[in-house]
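Apologies for my clumsy wording, but are you able to produce some protein sequence, whichever is easiest, and the C-alpha cells describing how it folds?
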Amino acid sequence: MYRFKAFKRKHGYTLIEVIIAVAIFSMMVMLGTMAFTQGLRQYKNILSKGLNFWQNAKYVWLTKNIGSMIDYYVQSPYSWGPFFVGKSNYFEYVSASPIASSLPVLSLIKVHEKKDKKYDIIYYEKPVYTMYYEDLINFYKDEDYKKATHLELFKNVDKVKLRYYGYNIQTREYNWYENYNALKQKILPTLVKITYQKYGKTHKLIFGINNNSLEKSIYFYIYMYKAYEFR
C-alpha cells in the first residue's frame, strides 16, 4: 500500500503583481490625501463663515440683551426699580440671558486692561434667582464675575470708552455720563455707548433701551397694595 503526501507549492509574488499592488496603494493614498485636503479646506471655509457669523450675531444678541433690561426690576434700599450701574470701565444690569434661553441673569460687561496697553471687552453673566441687592452690587466688587460664564466680545482693542445717555433728576436734563446708577435716578439710561479703536480705526457701538421705567414705577404701589391686602 502506497501512501501519497500532498505538498503545497510555495512561490513569491511576481514583479507585475508587486507593481500593480504599489500602484493601487499609491492611488488610494493620493485619493485619501485629496479627500482630506478638500475636507480641511471646507472646514476652514465653514469655520471662517462661522466666525463671521459670530461677529455679526453677537451684535444681535447683545442688542437684545441690553434692550431687555427694562423688563426686570429689583428690590433695593431705594424701593423697587431697574438695576443698572455704569462706570468708566464696566457696566452691569439685570436682563434676559443671551446664553441660557432668556433666563434672568445679572450681566456684566467689563473692560480689561492688558500689559501692552491693549484692552479686552468681556461679557459675564450669572443667574439672579438666589441673589439679593447686596449680591448684585458685590458681583463686581468681590470679583465674583471671574467665576461666572463669560464670552469675549472684543479682543486687543485700543482706547475703550463707556458712556451712558440718560436723564438726570437733579439737573432735569439729558446728557452723556461716565457714571450712571439707575436705582438712584429711578430710570434706566436711554443709550449705552461703547467706543474703541482697532487698527487705528474708531468704532462706536450704541445700544438703545426703550425706556419706560417711570411708567413701571407703579409696580411698587401695586406690590404695596397687595401686601396690605393680605394682612
Notes: Residues 217-231 have pLDDT under 50 and may be disordered. The CA atoms of residues 35 and 226 lie 69 Å apart. The radius of gyration is 32 Å.
